[in-house]
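debug: dumping io for the single-chain case to check the tokenizer round-trip. Nothing else runs in this session.
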Amino acid sequence: MKVHVVQAEYGDCLLLTSENGKNTTTVLIDGGPYQTFEKHLKPTLQKLPKNGKLDLVVLSHIDNDHIIGLVDLFGQIKEEREKGRKELVKIAKLWHNSFNDLLQIDEDPNTFFRNSFLPLNLGSEDEKKKMENSLTSIIITGFQQATDLSSLAKSLKVPVNPEFEKLIQTDNSPKIIKLNDITVHILGPSEKNLEKLRKEWKDWEDKKKMHHARVLDLFQILDKSVPNLSSIMLLVERNDKKILFTGDGSSDDVVSALSKDFMLDNEGRFHVDILKVPHHGSDRNVAPYFFNKVTADYYVISANGRDDNPSFDTLKWIIESNNETKRSITLVFTNSTPNIAKIMKQYDQKKYNYKCFFVQGKEDFITIDL
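debug: decoded output
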């Protein structure tokens, strides 16, 4: 198996390829933010996959730094099909939990948010303009784009979540899907977390606060709860090789899912060849214990310093946990950032037994070959 880490700046875009003789299985996980498709994902797909097909496309969760590139990809294929041109790639199916299905809402996000706020008595024109700007900020975080992606998939006759009853979720144990020569364990989101997300949403809808407070509460839910609670998290296996894709999920949820499926060893640990570090290396989604519980040979972090990602603490926890086990590890980054430079200065690579690799210059991706 190979993981191609596509340059996605502050977002995520990963291409998994698994070759078995003449047969190749290809999975695209997330598409990155604005301009990722034109600048990096499209050139990558022109080189890979060899069979010109994506066996599976996964949107880990609704957020513009993961979804925009997928909307652009599906949009280009639709345009090519309408004009009778050769399509960039063939897409077999899409895994995607839509805004409407997650929160059980009938209206599209644009209509819903505007109907929720604009009828309020806002007073001055200045307040109305501020509200319009707030609504635009909310909508462009990816929620309208999630509806657009669903519509594009439908128009292209790409099946959405065909192995599931509408939503991708787990209950008491991870769901296992066989995809050609690879095995995919669905680790999240859990039914419990989606119920928690819906409760937060209902509590927000039921509040009778002033509109400014309601907007702030909504931003909290969309910025933190949706990515953390609804991320599709996958463990991909082939033979003895393992890759863990975490989206923007919580490290607690990863460990909980692995525990339910009895994957932890006698010491309570789980080792993978490649770990896609949650939420671009943010210390909001991980804790020091996580990197002692889940160890890896390669740690992938897609970030460019925005929102202070990857955080210094996350990098420190990875390196220090590895120092205890005396393993040699490799950190794979899409970009150099101040925190990475700081960690490399404070933690000598030879002493702490780690290497750092970056997507180079104008390259579109870096490949980890297992």
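debug: round-trip ok. The mean pLDDT is 90.
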